[in-house]
Amino acid sequence: MPLRAKPSTILTISPLSVALLNIARSTLLGLSITMLLSGCGGSDNSDDNTSSTPSLPSDPNPPTTPDSPEVDTDWQPAGGNATISADVSRPFLQIMPNLPSSALGGVSPGRELFITQWTPANEGRALFDGVGPLFNANACTQCHSAEGRKPVYAADGALSDAILFRLGDQQGLAHPYYGEQMQHQSIDPSIAPEGSVRYAMTATHDDTPAGVQFNFTPTDPNQPLGNTAISGRISPQLVGMGLLDLIPEANIIAAADPDDSNKDGISGRVHWVDEGMQQHVGRFGWKAINASLRTQNANAMSQDMGLTTSVFMDPNCTVNQPICWTAANGGSPEVSDSSLDAVSDFMTALAVPERRTGDLATFNKGANLFAQVGCAGCHTPKQKTGDSSRFPLLSQQTIYPYTDLLLHDMGAGLDDGVKEKNAESYEWRTPPLWGIGIVARDPEARFLHDGRANSLTEAILWHGGEAEAVKTRFKQLSATQKQTLLTFLNGI
């Protein structure tokens, strides 16, 4: 007998097969597929960075002064050796050029693991089974797109699979029944999903742009959210993931300034997380909850698809959900270490689309404004990778991801009420900006963690906390200066 739905609760969101190893190298050429996965501060110690934020000039092409150093505009390839020509029709999930044959053993099967639809256990696909019994997606293509970001919000209040929902409170406690993430699908009609979510847009208020509120209806009316907050997480575009994984921890640590020692108002801090029985620098996820690409992949397999790995051996359910513990599984673990490593190889091989500079003089003016407004205080333009024995091409590369990978207090407007590990509810990892302009070409593109912003300008205007002064300086720009800065953002 079906369960009676509870009245809506509204919350406002401020051993792979040998055959796989023989996949032809040619399948990598022009590769464009969909993949799984799933703030501001510091500097990259480059000569073109300073610890202070200069005041804004009134001239859109200001002279260089000691307080306003000229930005290094001797642009190197955006992703070093992993750079490809920008193809706006399929810009992401491409394989880096000049990939050596020695790397194919992982990259090719990793690709196959990404493009398949996973099935429940015991359905005759031993390599690709075990999904669920509760899950958000059974294929990477449900969440991610080679074109950028999948649409999230439909006109009737419905949501696509390109957004998931984290659950928790400001003390970091997950929901006792649903756990830390809501799963809205199940493998069989006899198994009830956890619930459904619809949305409604909120009106603009003074200088605050329109936002979004989520309406959660539990399948079991006896299991309300109560005091647990629910926070949307849109699927980001996936680009240069292996490069971010190769940035040395020491570089990230050196850029942190948790006590704002330089008095610039920015106090980015490292999110230290436990991984492999040690503490490491978190760098992946909206709140930097995973320290390595491998763990990020395993976490997405667990929470999004209900697949166990050696990293996360337990089902993605709480002890109060017996179906996850009694249902048939696809092995223990369901994703072997060789498969998990293959996925990580594939993601490490992802290329970075080259920047689109157009009129170089205007692009360079925008780069200077980006620094003068203070955006570069968090969205650090340049980073450098360490050494990689698996992918030597990616060793010691200068890259332009526009992130410091640190946590920052982003203010009350972006406080989602959900603490994750040691990241407070108001703290967010600085998201990388490379490729953001390609995403912005889509009229349905959304920005920020829950997609509340429908433009880059709206995303900037939602910034607060450590970025409050940056937002103010942006608002003080002339219309011409704003357009120049946005032209730059659309080109990186």
How would you characterize this protein structure?
It is a single chain. The termini are far apart. The N terminus is likely disordered. 21% of the residues lie in helices and 13% in strands. A hairpin with a 2-residue loop joins strand 4 and strand 5. The strands form eight sheets. A three-stranded antiparallel beta sheet has the order 1-10-9, with no helix packed on it. Helix 2 packs across helix 7 and helix 5 crosses helix 7. By secondary structure, the protein is of the alpha+beta class. It is built from twelve helices and 18 strands. It is globular and about 60 Å long.
**Estimated radius of gyration:** 22 Å
Structural class determined from secondary elements = alpha+beta
The helix tally amounts to 12
Topology order in helix (H) and strand (E) letters: EHEHEEEEEEEEEHHEEHHHEHEEEEHHHH
Percentage of residues in DSSP E strands: 5-15%
Q: In whole angstroms, how far apart are the ends?
A: 54 Å
What is the average of the pLDDT values? 87
Low-confidence stretches: 1-55, 57-68
Biggest sheet details: 3 strands, antiparallel
The shape is globular
Q: Helix fraction?
A: 10-25%
Count of beta strands:
18
Sequence of strands across the biggest β-sheet: 1-10-9
Task: Kindly list the characteristics that best describe this protein.
492 residues, alpha+beta, three-stranded antiparallel beta sheet, globular, disordered N terminus
